[in-house]
Amino acid sequence: MLTDIEIAQAVAMRPIAEVAADLGILEDELEYYGKYKAKLNGGLWERVKDRPDGKLVLVTAINPTPAGEGKTTTTVGLGQAMGKLGKKALIALREPSMGPVMGVKGGAAGGGYAQVVPMEDINLHFTGDMHAITAANNLLCAMIDNHIKQGNELGIDPTRIVFKRCLDMNDRALREVVVGLGGRVNGVPREDGFVITVASEVMAVLCLASGLPDLKARLGEIIAAYGYDGREIKAKELGAAGAMATLLKDAIHPNLVQTLEGTPCLMHGGPFANIAHGCNSVLATRLALKLGDIVITEAGFGADLGAEKFLDIKCRAAGLRPDAVVVVATVRALKYNGGVKKADLAAPNVDALARGIVNLGKHIENMRKYGLPVIVAANRFGTDSEEELAYIRDYCTEQGAAFALSDVFAEGGAGGRALAEQVLSVLETQESHYAPIYDAARPIKEKIETVVREIYGGAGVSYSPAAERQIKTLTEMGYGALPVCIAKTQYSLSDDPTLLGRPEGFTVTVREVKAYAGAGFVTVLTGDIMTMPGLPKVPCAEKIDIREDGSITGLF
Fold first, then answer.
1. Rounded to whole angstroms, what are the CA distances from 442 to 447, 448, 511?
2. What string of DSSP letters covers 346-384?
3. CB-based contact 119:2 (threshold 8 Å)
4. Smallest Cα–Cα separation from 323: which of 311, 331, 335?
5. Contacts of 343 by beta carbon, 8 Å cutoff, 6+ apart
6. Do residues 361 and 502 lie in contact, with contact meaning Cβ atoms separated by under 8 Å?
7. Is the pTM of the predicted complex or chain greater than 0.90?
8. C-alpha angle 351/352/356, rounded to 5°?
């Protein structure tokens, strides 16, 4: 059996100029990054912005498990299947983070015969967007410390600097650090820390910006620190916004790549859904809607995280109205939710499936709360029994959700034909009545508690004393009407990763609340969630190598 990288390396990719030409993109609207990657410049948007939008389909999933769900693989395969049905379809995805690539999760380019290529480039440095975001973020950090060293005219309180450095790598040793050691020449000693680049506010700003002027304005609104007098001090007061925007002048443009079958894909931005808002850029999604009849996009992790943030933050900010949602599930993952150990998931077990399928039921219910038609995609594995697949199909019918089997990992677009036909049927026969789950003008606590109660299924929320003070302060400062971006574990509907299935009666613990004023939301940290992940005992990096001829091995 071929590995993902072997499959990707065997395909004959089309020159990206040909892929662009199929979409009607002109030569001078492309900025080439080699033969198979390109950025799409602002001139393209100006030319197509008045066209009507295509249909927008969101792909999400049940809560992730060690058994795997294949959400990105399904997204890619669905796009390929639409192409086989003669539809002008585009895929809109996030860029992978180097941390998971070198850690444990893997990349974000799909798998098997449903991948985006060039897979090696995408999962490594790609077009440099992550590095540009890291540089812009850390420029602001350097300017904060330099301002204090040079006299601190703004009166920054070194103990209340809230903007952290970032790095696109899992490195737990950098969560808490001390900077400025070594004497006066090295600045003022203080406690600091790092977040992973995809969790940084600069990443969120890039993904939610409508263009370069909006990007620059949002960067200027980032709260860098608080002064001795308690007021917020923003990036624009430090004179950083212009230089930060300059570092991001290329990164703001969406990237055009292709699938194994030549289906176009706009891949841009990469925030994690458990610790950030988990969606690709507004610019990429808007542009895709102008270029294609059907746009298939993805939100990270389960529907309680990525989809909730897509629907409550991104769609609200960008004026997007999704037409349908696909919820990906697997027999294996549902049995895991039903209490089966990973080593035993290959054995048929309808009883365990029946116990675990309530997780899928909750996500179907949640997506309906947003007024969206739901299609369940059962991502098929070779160990699935017909009885188990029939059980999921019957359950979805009882829930009033459309259902289709998907075998895109093994068969590519051909294996997604049934799913594509089901999605098209829903788009033609069912209307979307999309609306966010809460009114952003409501108080911060009310918004948090609405998500916990309606989406997670929890009984209530407990706030740490620090979180209580922060909510009060942010409300007084005028940030109370922003949407909330809740960071929590991806493995459970609750904030406890060990509570599988559909837990009830639990309380979510909020430990910290802070304003991402540039991004335009309030970040809420719950449970033990970390904004800088660590590497596992045996990281994927140990398996990755490069031959003398430059070919890469071990990358999944």
1. 7, 10, 21
2. TS--HHHHHHHTHHHHHHHHHHHHTT--EEEEEE--TT-
3. no
4. 311
5. none
6. yes
7. yes
8. 120
Can you tell me the distance from the alpha carbon of 33 to that of 39, in angstroms, rounded to the nearest whole number? 7
Report which of 312, 294, 267, 313 is spatially closest to residue 122, judged by C-alpha positions: 267
Other CB atoms within 10 A of residue 459 CB: 12
CB-CB contact of 555 with 542 (8 Å)? no
Cis peptide before 52 (omega within 30 of 0): no
- 554: tokens are 């071990």
Q: What would the two tokens of residue 450 be?
A: 């609405």
Instruction: Please write down the long-range contacts of 38-47, taking CB distance under 8 Å and 24 or more positions apart.
Output: 38/255, 38/256, 39/127, 39/250, 39/253, 39/254, 39/255, 39/256, 40/253, 40/254, 40/255, 40/256, 40/266, 40/287, 41/253, 42/211, 42/212, 42/253, 44/287, 45/211, 45/283, 45/286, 45/287, 45/290
pLDDT tens string 109-168:
999 999 999 999 999 999 999 999 999 999 999 999 999 999 999 999 999 999 999 999
Q: How far apart are CA 324 and CA 426, in angstroms?
A: 8
Structural contact between residues 509 and 491, judged by C-beta atoms closer than 8 angstroms: no
At residue 465, the 3 state secondary structure works out as helix
pLDDT tens digits along 393-446: 999 999 999 999 999 999 999 999 999 999 999 999 999 999 999 999 999 999
Residues 6 or more apart whose Cβ sits within 8 Å of residue 139: 240, 243, 244, 247
Structure-token pair, residue 545: 């190598």
Phi, psi of 214 (to 5 degrees): -65, -40
Q: How far apart are CA 62 and CA 454, in angstroms?
A: 16
Distance CA 76, CA 70 (A): 10
**Residue at 41: amino acid letter:** N
Length of the chain: 556
Q: Which residues share a beta bridge with 487? A: 525
Burial pattern 285-317, b for ≥16 Cβ within 10 A else e, equals bbbbbbbbebbbbbbbbbbbbbbbbbbbbbbbb
Which two tokens mark 208? 């939610």
DSSP state of 52: P
**Residue 356 and residue 334 in contact, taking contact as beta carbons nearer than 8 Å:** yes
DSSP 3-state assignment of 554? Answer: coil
Q: What CA–CA distance (Å, rounded) separates 417 from 320?
A: 27
Kindly report the backbone phi and psi dihedral angles of residue 498, in degrees, each rounded to the nearest multiple of 5, phi listed first.
Answer: -85, -10
Residue-averaged pLDDT of the chain? 96
Rounded Cα gap, residues 299 and 311, in angstroms:
10
Chain-centre distance for alpha carbon 533 = 15
User: Which of 42, 10, 250, 191 minimizes the C-alpha distance to 117?
Assistant: 10
C-alpha span between 29 and 52 (Å, rounded): 20
Q: What is the pairing mode between strands 194-196 and 165-167? A: parallel
- Residues near 127 by beta carbon (within 8 Å), at least 6 away in sequence: 33, 37, 39, 250, 251, 255
Cα gap 364→327, rounded to integer Å: 7
